[in-house]
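User: quick one, sequence for these tokens?
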């Protein structure tokens, strides 16, 4: 079950806080905390077959009650403390984050935060794009900086089969264009590739978005959660994706844009833009992983594959002040030694299955 870092929270002497004077937090491998991903809802209007299969997330699935969710005030408090201690980017995710009513209010609150150096954190959002046509403008006005839209196929029949709620791909494409017109930039498009399902779409997706304002990124299908029945045979390695696209449109490697970046960049040799590949399975990037995740009900997870979260909501609702919250964050991040993707291949299928992995729809991508 979740552990609550009460010991760190209760001792407020400077030594016990273990906060470096720079405000930067470092884990056991000296990885800083830079990127905070916050899930604002565990609900979604899609039932993507690899994420929230209907067989598990059906009519009687028990989603969280409203009072279990972190309020915007609570999210803002956690984010404020995290930003004061080195977080530079906050990504809102879910479930489907645009289902959370008033999300623009939360974005505006987060966009008003400042780090110890006075720098404003970047505010990013990952969405399935279904509500973007309506929301793009208000998201931009609220202060959203970066947008990632998930798009797994251009083929309408396949897209609808994958989202399993008959949502037409044309409406997501319209939403992406609406976001561009609203001035949101950069816009990234994420395609999860699952062999035997949508790997036939790799070339069509690359061709369609080459030379557009959008950067397409291919994500290796991961063994998050336990409900998607993941198997290694269904992973299409990034190297194969790059090779297939390069055969049509030659690609050359490009340098990472930022430290800890998850995607390896490849640019088209003819200068018409770039793609990214996220090799979470075949080429783990734990060594530079600077991301923490907060679940919808306020548990801090130091790894996407962590089996247990730490209950920040209990601290907040128990009356902890910002200093105590900072101490808890420092102690949790300081104890972090996660590197699941690096050790995945050394785990037997039994050991992997025995891990009580959390679902992607609960923790966000
Ligand atoms: N609903 C939003 C969306 O789809 O963009 C945000 C939440 S969703 C869980 C975040 C990202 O996780 C999406 O890009 C989705 O494709 C990705 N994802 C979900 N399950 C995955 C899996 N098993 N392997 C790799 N990516 C996955
Ligand atoms: Fe919903 Fe996103 Fe998961 Fe699809 S990937 S079911 S849109 S949370
Ligand atoms: Fe980071 Fe965990 Fe993914 Fe490694 S497995 S990159 S530590 S989230």
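Assistant:
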């Amino acid at each position: 079950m979740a552990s609550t870092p009460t010991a760190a929270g209760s001792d407020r002497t400077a030594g016990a806080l273990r906060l470096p004077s720079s405000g930067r937090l470092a884990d056991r491998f000296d990885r800083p905390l830079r990127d905070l991903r916050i899930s604002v809802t565990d609900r979604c209007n899609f039932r993507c077959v690899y994420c929230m299969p209907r067989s598990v997330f059906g009519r009687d699935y028990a989603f969280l009650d409203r009072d279990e969710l972190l309020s915007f005030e609570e999210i803002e408090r956690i984010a404020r403390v995290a930003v004061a201690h080195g977080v530079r980017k906050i990504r809102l995710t879910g479930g489907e984050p645009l289902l959370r009513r008033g999300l623009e209010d939360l974005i505006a609150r987060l966009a008003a935060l400042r780090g110890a150096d006075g720098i404003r954190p970047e505010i990013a959002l990952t969405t399935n794009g279904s509500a973007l046509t309506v929301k793009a403008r208000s998201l931009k006005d609220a202060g959203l900086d970066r947008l990632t839209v998930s798009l797994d196929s251009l083929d309408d029949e396949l897209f609808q089969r994958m989202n399993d709620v008959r949502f037409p791909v044309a409406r997501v494409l319209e939403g992406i264009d609406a976001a561009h017109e609203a001035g949101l930039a950069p816009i990234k498009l994420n395609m999860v590739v699952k062999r035997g399902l949508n790997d036939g779409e790799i070339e069509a997706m690359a061709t369609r978005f080459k030379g557009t304002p959008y950067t397409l990124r291919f994500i290796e299908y991961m063994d998050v959660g336990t409900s998607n029945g993941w198997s290694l045979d269904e992973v299409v390695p990034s190297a194969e994706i790059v090779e297939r696209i390069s055969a049509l449109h030659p690609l050359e490697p490009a340098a990472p844009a930022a430290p800890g970046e998850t995607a390896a960049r490849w640019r088209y040799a003819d200068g018409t833009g770039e793609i990214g590949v996220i090799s979470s399975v075949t080429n783990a990037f734990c060594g530079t992983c600077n991301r923490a995740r907060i679940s919808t009900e306020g548990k801090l997870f130091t790894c996407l594959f962590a089996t247990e979260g730490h209950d920040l909501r209990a601290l907040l609702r128990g009356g902890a002040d910002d200093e105590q919250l900072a101490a808890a964050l420092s102690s949790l991040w300081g104890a972090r030694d996660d590197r699941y993707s690096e050790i995945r291949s050394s785990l037997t299928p039994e050991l992997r299955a025995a891990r009580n992995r959390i679902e992607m729809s609960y923790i966000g991508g």
